[in-house]
Amino acid sequence: MTTVLLDIGNVIVNVDFLHFCSRVARSGSHVQCVHDRFCTGEVKDAFDRGQVSSESFLQYLIDDDCTAELSTEEACLAWQSIFSLVDGAREGVRYLRERYAVWFMSDTDPLHARWLLDQYDLFQGAEGFLFSYRHGALKTESAAFTHALQATGCPPEQLLLIDDKSENGRVCSMSGVGFLDFRSWNDTIARLEQ
Predict the structure, then answer these.
(1) CA 46: distance to chain centroid?
(2) 3-14+85-192: what fold?
(3) With 0-12 CB in 10 A as exposed, 13-18 as middle and 19+ as buried, what is 93?
(4) How far apart are alpha carbons 21 and 66 in whole angstroms?
(5) Do 185 and 89 touch, CB atoms closer than 8 A?
(6) Distance between CA 90 and CA 85 in Å, rounded?
(7) CATH number of 17-80
(8) Could you tell me the CA-to-CA distances from 137 to 70, 147, 164, 184 in Å, in that order?
């Protein structure tokens, strides 16, 4: 293995959608409604695939009957400010870069991607970024790994996906790409050193 495909959500950053929902919900009783409409399901998947523009997503959020009155800027900031670094992420990325080519691979939308790249310097110096909104496929779809193979120029046996979701691991394995299920940075480094 020469190249790592490194997930971002819950590997590099913790993702707190509840924080977003609480900030934009019309009331406490609307938090679950906001979560169901924007943080999971068809709308989120379409945004992550690049099928919905950032402007359309924010307008849909602003116009929704479960959300409070929001400006575009308020909606955008609430959507973006849901991240915090996972313990050990900086050291883990440093460890990987000393040994492998590192590509960040994430099912994400342009608002989250831009925020993450602006906020966290550990993304600097990456070999590349495989964001779902750019190529139109989530990691639960084989097309995402077809794209990863083309973008990296590596044969599948030279790639390893490190991700916290086992369903992504099943799909990447069907493409011949290795998989390491992320639990913590200490655990990940220990398993890579075996």
Answers:
(1) 14
(2) Rossmann fold (3.40.50)
(3) buried
(4) 10
(5) yes
(6) 8
(7) 1.10.150
(8) 30, 9, 18, 26
Q: Which residues pair with 5 in a beta bridge?
A: 103, 161
Q: Residue 188: what pLDDT?
A: 98
H or E element that contains 181: strand 178-181
Q: Among residues 137, 85, 141, which one has the least CA distance to residue 108?
A: 137
State the alpha helices, DSSP H only, in the chain: 17-24, 31-34, 41-48, 54-63, 72-80, 89-99, 110-119, 132-135, 142-152, 166-174, 185-192
pLDDT of residue 48: 99
Count the Cβ atoms, other than its own, within 10 Å of residue 98.
Answer: 8
DSSP H/E element including 160: strand 159-163
Question: Which parts of the chain register pLDDT below 50?
Answer: none
- Cβ-based neighbours of 53, under 8 Å, separated by 6 or more: none
**Sequence spans of domains, the chain:** 3-14+85-192, 17-80
pLDDT for 1 equals: 87
The per-residue pLDDT for range 21-61, each reduced to its tens digit, is: 999 999 999 999 999 999 999 999 999 999 999 999 999 99
Q: Considering the chain, what is the average pLDDT of its residues?
A: 97
In the block, tokens 């639990």 appear at: 183
